[in-house]
Amino acid sequence: MSTVCASCLNILVFLTLQQRDPMLKRDGFEDILEERRNSSDLKYALRCYAPVLYKGVTPCKANMLKNIVLQSDQLHYVVNQVSQESGEAPDIIQEEASVILEEMAHRLQISTVRFFAFALTKAFKTLFQHVCVNEEGIQRLQQAIQEHPVVLLPSHRSYMDFLLMSYILYTYDLALPVIAAGMDFMGMKFVGEMLRMSGAFFIRRSFGGDKLYWAVFSEYVKTMLRNGFAPIEFFLEGTRSRTCKSLTPKLGLLNIVIEPFFKGEVFDVNLVPVSISYERILEESLYARELLGVPKPKESTSGLLKARRILSEDYGSIHVYFGQPVSVRSLAQGKVNRSKYNLFPRHIPRKPMEETQSFVNDTAYRIVRLQEDNMVLKPWVLMASLLLQNLEGLELSVLTEQTLWLRGLALSYAAFLDWPDHAPTAKVVSSSLALHRGLACVSGGRVSLVVGEPLGPVTPEEALFNRAVSVLSCASYRNQVLHVFLRPAMLAVAMHTTASSKKNEVYNCFSFLWNMFSNDFILCPGDTVQDFEEACYLLVKTGAVQMPQQDIEMTDRAVLWTLEFPKVVNKFYSGKLSCRRILSEI
Amino acid sequence: MSSVGLRLGVTAASHTYSISCCYYNAMRLTATVCFPRQEIMKWNGWGYSDSKFLFNKKGQAEFTGKRYRLSGMVLPSLQDWFENTFGASVNHKSPATPALNASAVPPASLNEAFVEDLKATGIPFSHEAEDRVFRAHGHCLHEIFALREGKKFERVPDLVVWPICHNDVVKIVELACKHNVCLIPYGGGTSVTSALECPPEETRCIVSLDTSQMNRILWIDEKNLVAHVEAGIIGQDLERLLNESGYCTGHEPDSMEFSSLGGWVATRASGMKKNVYGNIEDLVIHIKVVTPRGVIEKSCQGPRMSTGPDIHHFILGSEGTLGVVTEVTMKIRPIPEYQKYGSVVFPNFEAGVACLREVAKQRCAPASIRLMDNEQFQFGHALKPQVSSIFTNFVEGLKKFYITKFKGFDPHQLVVATLLFEGDRERVLQHEKQVYDIAATFGGLAAGEDNGQRGYILTFVIAYLRDLGMDYYVVAESFETSVPWDRVLDLCRNVKERINRECKERGVQFQPLTSCRVTQTYDAGACVYFYFAFNYRGLADPVHTYEQVEHAAREEILANGGSLSHHHGVGKLRKEWMKDSISSVGVGMLKSVKDYVDPDNIFGNRNLL
User: Fold this and answer.
1) Residue B559 with chain A: CB contacts under 8 Å
2) Which of A270, A345, B254, B356 has the fewest beta carbons under 10 Å from its own?
3) CA distance B461 to B478
4) CB contact under 8 A, A267 and B580
5) Rounded-to-integer distance, Cα B211 and Cα B207, Å
6) For B338-451, CATH number?
7) Active site: which residues (chain B) (predicted)?
């Protein structure tokens, strides 16, 4: 590491940042609700919908799709295998497979989609101020869908996500995706079936040892992918992130959608990261409660109806950013030797090779990181960060000033900040506070967290609980910006801890922190050096650090700086230590 | 045993050839392709000098000469096809250098002692520039392109020798060993793997050993149905001469007009009718090879032996790295009583491949069965000669109407399989029915003998068409592979897509032509043959671009389960993939054979390893 010329590395990092740095290349947004507010919803729901498909394939009826899957060599092989192992007749196993598929398969119907288009328009118009989409991203997606099988990989922060995705694709006349959904939704009477008819297919949460289930599932997904019948959509994070921090990716489905490329069944697969950012998350306080151990309410239709009250609130705007399609072929170039698949029949299921596994893992992290990069951050996210540093509250003027300062810092770190043009900072701050009045309040010129429900007498336990809810809710906003500051913050902590200016000593500490946090944050496997260099580059750029030759030195500004953000890292660090302590005591 | 020492009659232009050095043995000529080949063959293109495609003053394509079915005919649709497919224009010519510029040829660096000893043997030789250049290349695109452009040659043979029999070869090899001279065997010169290119780093005197004068059928053994033949004989001569006695080998590689028996052995050639007669490795019974260690041959002609690894398989595919094949005993068959072409149209390539797979499964493949994709089908149509009567025109129209309108085939999807049946009449008809019945289950429609035959004509004229393309800024090449059945479709699709993409990325301004055909069927897979061509206007170095794309296409083939080569061989073009293809131990085995047989690398063409 230290043998490499530092300036060379800097140039390298600069170049990679240029490539990664989406600042310059990020697209603008269009509000798709605007048109809805000025025209008939019914007309919109009934309009002509004729998306272009992959290489002009004709769409495949749900039943035909099932037949293709049930008659595939892949499934036959596993059916016979299971039959031999269990002693049951193959017919019976085949029947089982058919039942599994029946339970799983989507039944996409345009009429249901139209119903949703109508209902969601109504709901969105009440709930949200804007639903913003980058149209260039849509154009890229349209192109990609025609050329290659496409996998849509949205971030997952809310139940809204997948309805929203389909809604947007419908709006832009794009092929509707089929979406992998958890079985939990099936419990919802009627709604489950509605979702199925709008393109959801349902998978059990765990089926580790069930060969037959796995075979049906993977063949079902692959059949759709290979033929390009529809874009496949699933959530890499596997579940909604309750903390708004990206979760480390799950690999099962990604493995399935990438395999047809390795086996030469398709020329390429395009992965499209989609970043969905909510100004206010519908499940805001629900998540905080879940984190505190209140069980997740079971998905039920009556629950959904009860949740109607959320319709009366303002949830600000949503930004949906369709990222650059990522070609699996280009990613795999030089990393996976496809000819290793030549010596084994392709219809026999096999555990992925080590090389493939690490490639898929790598890819998954990279995609989640792309999701993070394109997450739109609202001013409130910065304010929430500052509020959490000052739990006792702070002067509005101080908050305003510091928010502005943090904005500058965030921007120089290439954060994707949605800051209203030409609005005075005070106004931006006050309107953010207004939108999040459930979390923060201003009294006597001081801003502080709202603690619990103001009504009725509360026990001390309840008070504590309520306070925890608001801190956690607030933290979930702060967490949205973590990825921007994470690397420089780790470096600052490393410099602080080592108190040395030797680059390699600092690096060792950085590397220690990096490894420790590799399950908490999205740190791409093997990227330690690159992340370190990126952190150095950013700190140098903001004048917090100087790097003469092999050394790394803090400048004065860094002193102020290190008091702020690394605290967050330190907090995670001490949180981790106390968890460990508690666990060891148990 | 009949007709011992059957000498070839003089067929083509017989002439005397006097050059500076001496011919002790008077003209012992001549096969169809004669001694100084460049007199009847192009020096910078494919085939006979008298046969070439050109666009006449009216812009219509013509094929000159008298040798082929298409010769002397006007092909009215070729120009449209050519211009539309490549975005080329008959007004944009890229003519070749008219004649060889002798100053572009490096002077011969002769090993004087070797030449002295060679003179004493009486074996004819030459160091004329034309003779040397002619034997310095095969027919790879970059080789022909360089000739046309009149580029300077880096390294060509210093001397050409023409042994006339096995013993001559023994003498030459002995002298080469004695004087440390590099020998490169030269048969028909149809290599497409850079196998004939002289290694530029070779500092010794390079001698091209031209086998063309070893062209006799030495004997025919009718009891065992084998013939003993000198290895320099050219395919069409072998077939014609055997036919005179009522026999054939049935080995018909697409290059058979010009390629030699020894070349087939050295590259593991495959013939169009291998389904009936087998590939070269199935046809040879006995091989005689002269190596620096001595002569390799077996002691008997038993039809199969269990005597350790078959030494024939060290020779088959050795690509001139171990020695010179001088004589071969190979199987012959009586000429089939009846031959019939046929064709089947399928709605799409998938259906066609499924049908060929089924035919292979039932092991009822005709002598030849090939499936051309839609691009090749249209290409074939562009080669239709002018129709003489209104009536034929009308019938053609009806046929087209029936297939596209009545049967609903999409003219931009449909593909055609061409068939060739051989045997006694009754069996052929029976066989034909069986194949057409299978085809019908895959939606195939019988499309007549004429379409079938046209498919095979394309095979023989395609190389001439490449020369036409090069006259108008179009470069083209073919390559092949073999692949298991279940991967045929995926491989074809992915390779075509890869070519299109690579062309785009490398700045090719026009959509390339990528076309493939399934050209041989086996129990466990098929041979796939690709054509690839593009208009190179606007490219600084078209050959380099072409090579990069071909390289990428080969990587794609390998990644999709295809082999490095089905029958063209490795040469120097594909050496880099040998280790991946046969493992490093495998390469080591071949190396150790080479080290034993030829420790001084006398056969120094550096192919294969």
Assistant:
1) 264, 337-339
2) A345
3) 13
4) no
5) 12
6) 3.30.70.3450
7) 529 (proton donor/acceptor)
